[in-house]
Every structure is written in C-alpha cells, then in structure tokens.
Amino acid sequence: xxxxxxxxxxxxxxxxxxxxxxxxxxxxxxxxxx
Length: 34
Hints:
With 34 residues, the protein is mostly helical.
C-alpha cells in the first residue's frame, strides 16, 4: 500500500477496507459447498 500524505488518505483507506470486506464475502461464498 503506497504511503499517502494527503487528506484523501482516509477516503482511500475506507475504500480499501470496503473492497477487502467484499472480497472476503466472495471468498466465503465460493468456499461454501454447493
């Protein structure tokens, strides 16, 4: 993760956490037995 020294760092962190959360949900869904 590149270092950010501006005010947009918080927004970038929120987007990063949101995308990681969605990624985890997708992994859980794909790991469920069909």
